[in-house]
């Protein structure tokens, strides 16, 4: 297979998946990993893919649609880890917390020690294994209608359950953050859940890596006036951070 054919084959995979490893690409194309790595370097230079640890992300999947669970769990892992560690400093024993759906929020849950006395409510089913390991936690799963492909629930049942709850802190993620529009997303199903978590908590902490400032979501979820603290990574443009701070938002950079 000549190089141009390999390029076409790699790009065509964007119809099947969001992210793929170099090893899987090499096996699929019948070439060495070294050859695939050189191809990826060229495609990345053209802006067609983005390199990640041991693989690539198809750039067409990063905008204008909700990222898949697979994509969200792989992109910007180191940045999300730092954000989660900073957020964990605000968690105290014997307190009640709300965790919405997202890979950075999931990274925060994985930092909770198994013997930590804490109360948790969430609608993200991808956290189940980690939550099940928390021996001293009271865990409330909102349930409702399953959002296919995202391992999360939504709907009237979940919203009514959440109406009965209050928390010390809500940890919220976002598909994007905009100075005028606030928290934005690509999916309409969990808008009410995010809004209720923000409104039913004493404090709201927004967890966003730098990529969330580089695009705009489909729907506005909540204004920035409902956010007490935004934690982001050092990859976020300093000018962007300064504009948000001038607007009155408290930001912690890690």
Describe what is shown at a glance:
The chain has 254 residues and is of the alpha/beta class.
What does this 3D model show about the protein?
By secondary structure, the chain is an alpha/beta fold. The strands form 4 sheets. It has a 7-stranded parallel β-sheet with strand order 6-5-4-9-12-14-15, sandwiched between helices. A 3-stranded antiparallel β-sheet has the order 1-3-2. A 3-stranded antiparallel β-sheet has the order 10-11-13, with helices on one face. Helix 2 (22-29) packs across helix 3 (33-45), helix 5 crosses helix 6 and helix 8 runs parallel beside helix 9 (191-199). Helices cover 34% and strands 24% of the residues.
Fill in the keyword field for this structure.
single chain, 254 residues, alpha/beta, seven-stranded parallel beta sheet, three-stranded antiparallel beta sheet
What general outline do the C-alpha atoms trace?
globular
The largest sheet has its strands arranged as 6-5-4-9-12-14-15
Distance between the termini: 45 Å
Given as residue ranges, the uncertain stretches (5+ residues, pLDDT < 50) are none
The largest pleated sheet is described as: 7 strands, parallel
Gyration radius from CA atoms, angstroms: 19 Å
- The number of helical segments is 10
In what range is the share of β-strand residues?
15-25%
Task: Tell me how many strands there are.
Answer: 15
Relative helix content: 25-40%
* Backbone structural class: alpha/beta
Order of helices and strands: HEHHEEHHEHEHEEEHEEEHEEEHE
Tell me, rounded to a whole number, the average pLDDT.
88
């Amino acid at each position: 297979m000549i190089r141009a054919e390999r390029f076409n084959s790699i790009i065509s995979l964007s119809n099947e998946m969001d992210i793929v490893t170099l090893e899987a690409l090499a096996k699929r194309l019948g070439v060495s990993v070294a050859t695939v790595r050189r191809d990826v370097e060229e495609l990345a230079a053209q802006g067609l893919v983005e390199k990640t640890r041991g693989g690539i992300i198809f750039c067409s999947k990063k905008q204008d649609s909700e990222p898949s669970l697979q994509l969200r769990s792989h992109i910007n892992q180191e940045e999300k880890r730092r954000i989660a560690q900073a957020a964990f400093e605000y968690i105290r024993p014997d307190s009640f917390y709300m965790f919405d759906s997202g890979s950075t929020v999931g990274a925060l849950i994985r930092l909770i020690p198994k013997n930590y006395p804490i109360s948790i409510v969430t609608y993200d089913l991808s956290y189940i294994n980690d939550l099940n390991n928390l021996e001293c936690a009271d865990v409330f799963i909102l349930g409702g209608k399953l959002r296919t492909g995202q391992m999360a629930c939504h709907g009237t049942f979940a919203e009514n359950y959440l109406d009965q709850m209050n928390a010390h802190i809500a940890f919220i993620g976002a598909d994007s953050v905009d100075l005028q529009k606030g928290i934005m997303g690509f999916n309409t199903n969990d808008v009410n859940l995010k809004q209720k978590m923000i409104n039913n908590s004493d404090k709201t902490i927004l967890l966003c890596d730098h990529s969330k400032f580089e695009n705009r979501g489909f729907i506005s979820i909540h204004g920035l006036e409902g956010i007490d603290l935004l934690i982001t990574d050092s990859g976020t443009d300093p000018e962007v951070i300064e504009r948000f701070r001038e607007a009155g938002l408290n930001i912690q950079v890690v």
